[in-house]
Protein backbone atom coordinates (compact mmCIF):
# COMPACT_ATOMS: atom_id res chain seq x y z
CA UNK A 1 0.00 0.00 0.00
CA UNK A 2 2.93 2.36 0.34
CA UNK A 3 3.19 2.71 -3.44
CA UNK A 4 -0.34 4.16 -3.86
CA UNK A 5 -0.57 7.89 -4.47
CA UNK A 6 -3.48 10.31 -4.13
CA UNK A 7 -2.34 12.15 -7.26
CA UNK A 8 -2.25 11.13 -10.89
CA UNK A 9 -1.19 12.58 -14.21
CA UNK A 10 -4.14 14.06 -16.12
CA UNK A 11 -2.41 13.14 -19.39
CA UNK A 12 -3.43 9.55 -18.62
CA UNK A 13 -7.15 10.38 -18.78
CA UNK A 14 -9.16 9.22 -21.78
CA UNK A 15 -12.31 10.69 -23.29
CA UNK A 16 -15.49 8.98 -22.06
CA UNK A 17 -17.53 7.22 -24.75
CA UNK A 18 -21.15 7.57 -23.66
CA UNK A 19 -22.53 4.94 -26.05
CA UNK A 20 -19.82 2.33 -25.71
CA UNK A 21 -21.26 -1.01 -26.95
CA UNK A 22 -19.47 -2.88 -24.16
CA UNK A 23 -21.85 -1.29 -21.66
CA UNK A 24 -25.06 -1.25 -23.73
CA UNK A 25 -26.95 -3.32 -21.14
CA UNK A 26 -26.26 -0.86 -18.33
CA UNK A 27 -28.99 1.70 -17.65
CA UNK A 28 -28.06 5.36 -18.00
CA UNK A 29 -28.46 6.96 -14.56
CA UNK A 30 -30.56 10.10 -14.27
CA UNK A 31 -29.11 13.20 -12.69
CA UNK A 32 -30.00 13.56 -9.04
CA UNK A 33 -31.62 16.80 -7.92
CA UNK A 34 -29.52 19.27 -5.97
CA UNK A 35 -30.87 19.91 -2.49
CA UNK A 36 -29.91 23.27 -1.05
CA UNK A 37 -29.74 23.85 2.68
CA UNK A 38 -31.89 26.89 3.47
CA UNK A 39 -30.72 26.91 7.10
CA UNK A 40 -27.58 28.85 6.24
CA UNK A 41 -27.63 32.54 5.39
CA UNK A 42 -24.94 32.14 2.72
CA UNK A 43 -25.82 33.47 -0.71
CA UNK A 44 -25.81 31.13 -3.68
CA UNK A 45 -23.73 32.19 -6.68
CA UNK A 46 -24.20 30.49 -10.04
CA UNK A 47 -21.36 30.32 -12.56
CA UNK A 48 -22.44 31.83 -15.88
CA UNK A 49 -19.19 31.48 -17.81
CA UNK A 50 -15.49 30.80 -17.35
CA UNK A 51 -13.72 33.80 -18.85
CA UNK A 52 -10.03 32.91 -18.50
CA UNK A 53 -7.77 30.12 -17.30
CA UNK A 54 -4.23 30.46 -16.00
CA UNK A 55 -1.63 28.49 -14.09
CA UNK A 56 -0.16 30.26 -11.08
CA UNK A 57 2.30 28.49 -8.76
CA UNK A 58 1.45 25.18 -10.47
CA UNK A 59 -2.25 25.65 -9.62
CA UNK A 60 -4.95 26.18 -12.23
CA UNK A 61 -7.07 29.29 -11.64
CA UNK A 62 -10.20 30.43 -13.45
CA UNK A 63 -11.73 33.87 -13.91
CA UNK A 64 -15.46 33.31 -13.31
CA UNK A 65 -18.35 35.42 -14.61
CA UNK A 66 -21.16 35.04 -12.05
CA UNK A 67 -24.82 34.93 -13.10
CA UNK A 68 -26.62 38.19 -12.43
CA UNK A 69 -23.45 40.19 -11.81
CA UNK A 70 -21.61 42.45 -14.28
CA UNK A 71 -18.39 41.22 -15.86
CA UNK A 72 -16.47 43.77 -13.78
CA UNK A 73 -17.41 41.68 -10.70
CA UNK A 74 -15.82 38.51 -12.10
CA UNK A 75 -13.48 36.75 -9.67
UniProtKB/TrEMBL annotation:
Annotated InterPro entries: Chromo-like_dom_sf, Chromo/chromo_shadow_dom, Chromo_domain
Signal peptide positions on this chain: none
Organism superkingdom: Eukaryota
Organism listed in the record: Aphanomyces invadans
Transmembrane domains' residue ranges: none
Name this polypeptide is given: Chromo domain-containing protein
Phylogenetic lineage: Eukaryota, Sar, Stramenopiles, Oomycota, Saprolegniomycetes
Chromo domain span: 45-75
Listed Pfam families: Chromo
Amino acid sequence: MSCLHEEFNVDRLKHCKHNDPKFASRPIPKATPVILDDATDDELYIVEKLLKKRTFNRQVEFLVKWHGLPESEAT
